Amino acid sequence: MQEVATRAGVSLATASFAINGTGARKVSEETRHRVQAVAEELGYRPNAMAQNLSRARSSFIGFITDSVATTPFAGEMIRGVQDAAREHGYVMLMANTESDPRTFHDVASMMLDHQVHGVVYSTWYHRQVSTPTGLSGIPVVLANCYTRGDRLQSFVPDEAGGGRAATEILTAHGHRRIAFINSDLSAPATTGRLRGYRKALQAAGIPFDKNLVLTTTPEQEGGYTAGLRLLQLDPRPTAVFCYNDRVAMGLYDALRTRGLSIPQDMAVVGFDNQEVIAAHLRPALTTVALPHYELGYLSLKWLLREGAPTTGEAPEPTRTLVPCPTVERSST
């Protein structure tokens, strides 16, 4: 800073005002431009940590994940947080812990060292988590996960709403015998999507038939095995809602081995909208999208708006359900 001031022929205080955009009345536009040109020529950059201390406010936002950064949906979640940060003049610091407690401790310490304004904590699949420790004193919001008793504000997919929307696509096409291939894992998605499936049937006046609900591993092989079981039913279903797109891909394989076509012989709806699968199956798969961008974006927007209020107390935390939009293609 002193070198910039000397080269520009101004005092240290004037250089500081010009570079940091403060003291507008004390620095003319001509002087400001001259100082900024010298700073650019010398490659000067303000010390962000020192600025945080002087302003008592950080320009950093933390984003801590268990393994989001290595999943197919990483880009949208990260983009959502980053867009919200950029809109408010913040820079995102991201760290991936791979669910290792020691790594999380180190990451939390790093975030505190950088005096982050707050932290978005996220998991790669929707589930309950323990309250993140080691982040005391700064606001924390959860994305795609929640705590027991909702002790922290969280934003999660509306699994039941998504399950209902997926099934309603099929009822809208006139199907009455609709099967559901569900996951055998214990998770909010498993119970929520089943609940939505049942609500859609009820709304359409279709009796629930437990024989049309199969559970399997939520992978392609699980979908293939479950698909062969469905084809043994008499009468067989005319439409199937699959727990996710990988299961739907396995169901496609099962139907082809029996010489059946989609959607003429059986309509299929998936869940997740995993682009590398859904958009490239033949026919392209109708599915329900997980709102990863919205989860990241809304979480950080809430953190900056409500998480650290300038006056009064923070609002009571809630679990906010984010809608899962439908993506209709050719499989229905």
From TrEMBL:
SMART domains: HTH_LACI. One of its GO terms (molecular function) is DNA-binding transcription factor activity. The keyword Cell membrane does not apply. PROSITE patterns: HTH_LACI_2. SUPFAM superfamilies: lambda repressor-like DNA-binding domains, Periplasmic binding protein-like I. Residues 1-55 form the HTH lacI-type domain. The keyword Transcription applies. Residues 309-332 are annotated as: Disordered. Keywords: DNA-binding, Repressor, Transcription, Transcription regulation. This is LacI family transcriptional regulator. The lineage of its organism: Bacteria, Bacillati, Actinomycetota, Actinomycetes, Kitasatosporales.
